[in-house]
Amino acid sequence: MARKILAPGTILAPLPAVMVSCGTTEKANVLTIAWTGIINTKPPMTYISVRPSRHSYDIIKESGEFVINLTTSKLVHETDFCGVRSGRDTDKPAKCRLHLEEASAVSAPVIAESPLSLECRVTEIKPLGTHDMFIAEIVAINVDERYIDSKGKINLQQAGLMAYSHGEYFSLGRKLGEFGYSVAKKAKNKSYNHSARNKRK
Ligand SMILES: Cc1cc2nc3c(=O)[nH]c(=O)nc-3n(C[C@H](O)[C@H](O)[C@H](O)COP(=O)(O)O)c2cc1C
Fold first, then answer.
1. Model pTM greater than 0.85?
2. pLDDT of residue 189
3. Distance 176 CA to ligand 1 centre (A)
4. Which of 40, 106, 126, 166 could make a disulfide contact with 133, Cβ separation 3.0–4.6 Å?
5. Helix (H) or strand (E) segment spanning residue 123
């Protein structure tokens, strides 16, 4: 198959499209962010890249805090809306009828409709060009109890998470495997083959 080389761009897919809340519960704003990810395990660290022109930019810079709220298929309309309207002239949480709750460790509120929210404290701001990268420590995980199983493990399979791919929103599909399953399966097959071979001998 022939492949084509294109000019460099930002196509990486799928990405999360998260709703980032900032400000305070009384005076909150929410913007949609796709430029986000995990960048360290211990301490747990994340980033969001925000254009300085966004209304949220100064709010996050001044408070040094924000909350990353995971989004679901049920929240797709609100996610898009918060990414195309500005808090400068629209009260987005009210317009989207989002319920805001006090976070446990930061001043920015949590969106109650989100299954899981990361409470974040900014440690560094890195200007990169069009966007500034807010590097932050995740200081608390705020999760809807429905997604904690009897063993205390977070289980988001039933949360209806969604993903963003090159300008389009998708619901996550069926489970294909789990971390490490490829080698676990091989080991199982290997021992099976061994015993099968031994039986043949
Ligand atoms: C799916 C999606 C992803 C987005 N990702 C980003 C992003 O990573 N960084 C950013 O600065 N703006 C991003 N935006 C645009 C902002 O969310 C948008 O400009 C928003 O209106 C800013 O709100 P504010 O002015 O209230 O802060 C995205 C928008 C959408 C719809």
1. yes
2. 53
3. 31
4. 126
5. strand 116-127
